[in-house]
Design a protein that fits this description.
Blueprint: E1 3-4, H1 11-15, H2 18-25, E2 29-34, E3 45-47, E4 52-54, E5 57-59, E6 61-63, H3 69-74, E7 77-82, E8 85-93, E9 104-106, E10 111-113, E11 116-118, E12 120-122, H4 128-133, E13 136-141, E14 144-152, E15 163-165, E16 170-172, E17 175-177, E18 179-181, H5 187-192, E19 195-199
Antiparallel strand pairs: 1-19, 2-7, 2-19, 3-6, 4-5, 5-12, 6-17, 7-8, 8-13, 9-12, 10-11, 11-18, 13-14, 14-19, 15-18, 16-17
Length: 200
């Protein structure tokens, strides 16, 4: 399992802004670890299981149990730059993509509940609509140089940020849902939207 992207000994990440963080991530393979739900003895990784939401959409979940090689393989993201946007990225599944097809994490027009949107993996042909809904702004967590939040560019407005987060909602005994919050942003959402970056 990987180490954090930046540590307290790395001054460039202690003082670097979001643009610097994005530049360092682009083109690299990373994993996202829930800061809210992880403990000193267990990391809770976001991952892409072999579970389909539909024929062209795959699930994105958070693994709550012991981490094994299969989970580590399915939790790898390749970070892609968004042209002309220094604070935005796209995330591609390393496990499920091929040389001819990229499978993007994206926020579709599919609600999980009134204030929650599904976050899925697009398995079909990539068109402009998918590229728009797969854009995320990287936001640093204040006072935590090794933690970030991800905000949907497509669905956010000047007055409202739509954060990706890991709620207290289970998909199964060992899996937690991974969603996008459409409602008012409160402290609980800000806590559950914090993620550590790890790399091999």
């Amino acid at each position: 399992m990987g180490d954090l992207w930046w540590t307290e000994e790395d001054e460039s990440f202690e003082t670097g802004d979001v643009t610097k963080i994005v530049q360092e991530m682009v083109g690299r393979k990373i994993r996202l670890v829930s800061s809210h739900w992880s403990t000193n003895s267990r990391k809770e990784y976001l991952y892409f299981p072999d579970l389909g939401w539909s024929s062209k959409r795959g699930m994105v979940l958070s693994w709550k149990d012991e981490v094994q090689e299969d989970i580590l393989s399915k939790s790898q993201f390749l970070v892609e730059a968004v042209p002309n946007q220094e604070d935005q990225i796209r995330l591609i599944s390393v496990r499920w993509s091929t040389n001819s097809r990229k499978e993007y994490l994206y926020s579709p027009t599919i609600d999980a509940a009134d204030e929650r949107r599904m976050v899925l993996l697009w398995k079909g042909k990539v068109q402009e609509d998918i590229l728009s809904k797969s854009r995320y702004v990287v936001e640093k967590v204040p006072g935590k140089d090794n933690q970030i939040r991800l905000i949907s560019v497509h669905w956010s407005t000047n007055s409202h940020k739509e954060y990706l987060y890991s709620p207290a909602i289970d998909w199964s005994k060992k899996r937690r849902m991974f969603l996008s919050w459409k409602g008012d942003v409160q402290k609980d959402i800000l806590s559950k939207s914090r993620y550590l970056i790890s790399i091999d």
